[in-house]
Structure formats: C-alpha cells, structure tokens
Amino acid sequence: MITNLAAGVQAFTSNAYLVTGERTVVVDPGANFDVVDRIRDHVDHLDAVVLTHTHPDHVGNLEAVTDAFGVDVWGFDPSIEGVDHGIEDGETVRLGDHDYVALHTPGHKDDHLCFYSPDAGVLIAGDLVFQNGSFGRTDLEEGDRETLIESIDRLAERIDDDLAEMHTGHGPSVTSDPAEHVRLAGRMARQM
C-alpha cells in the first residue's frame, strides 16, 4: 500500500510516500511538517528511507526520520550528506511487497531516480513528470532541459501502457492512464 504522508499539508514540501509491506519504506520524507507522527499513525517501524533526489523539499525531514526510526537512507549518490547507500541505475529495489527498477533520470537534479514496478503497475516519478504533462523544473542548479527530455523519453520507453499508478513528487497521484501523462510530459518539455 502507498500512502502520501504529506496529504493536506499546507507547508512547502514534496509528497512523502509510505510504502508498507514486506519492506516498509518512506520514499522522500518531505519537509516542514511532522512526518514522524504521520508515519507512526500507520506503522511502528521502518526498514529504510529511499530518495528520488535530494532537493530540500524532499529531504528536509530526513534527519527526523532517521533519528526516530534508526534507518539507513538509500539514494543515487552516497557522497551527498545524509545518503548512506547508493542505488545504481537499473538496480532492483524492494519497496513494500514489490520489486522496483531504479532508473537514473537526471535533468531536474543530477541524482534523480524514478522507481518502476512492472508487476505492481506502479511508477514513483519524483519530480521528473507530473499530472497532465507537467515536468520538473530545470532552472535550479543541476537542471538541464535537454537532459530532462532524454530522461522522460527513457522513462516513456521503459513503462508499460498498462501502468496503473504514477506517484509524483508534487500534486496528485495519477491513476487514469498514467503512461499517457508521461508521454505528454515529453511533448510538453520540447515545446517550452
């Protein structure tokens, strides 16, 4: 089960996903709200924190979560403070009850990862793509439009048309033809 712990939060934060099951993890703990209490509303323990990328709105609560639950943090670049273990492009990562392929998708930030489970029909897209063809901004440090387009294209080629759910770093999750939202983001990124 995937729950957005940041639902209803009015502060500047990313979505923060609790993925429960065999390996209970938080994907991106968010920022500027008490995520620890929200985690404890659902579970008593965590097995890990997994990051899509390390922008402050995605990792502001990281220390609070690691202190409260004593867990390690997994992300693309272990040289970044707070990231204990690296996840390589193409590596399989267990989230909840399913295996996800980690896809290195820079363009918004160099350490950006998306996580895709063909078996579950789920994509955790971070800030690469959003609902209705929106896509990650490229005006921040490490942002690059051409690289972002390449990452969106790579993701679009990888996912199946029967993708059931896309959980994004901001805004609502997409449960109606999410693969088309990814393809639309690729077209929109080329037009702007």
TrEMBL record:
Keyword annotations of the record: Hydrolase, Metal-binding, Zinc
Organism of derivation: Natrarchaeobius chitinivorans
InterPro entries: MBL_Glyoxalase_II (IPR051453), Metallo-B-lactamas (IPR001279), RibonucZ/Hydroxyglut_hydro (IPR036866)
Metallo-beta-lactamase domain segment(s): 13-167
GO terms of molecular function: hydrolase activity; metal ion binding
Domain of life: Archaea
Protein name: MBL fold metallo-hydrolase
Cofactor requirements of the protein: Zn(2+)
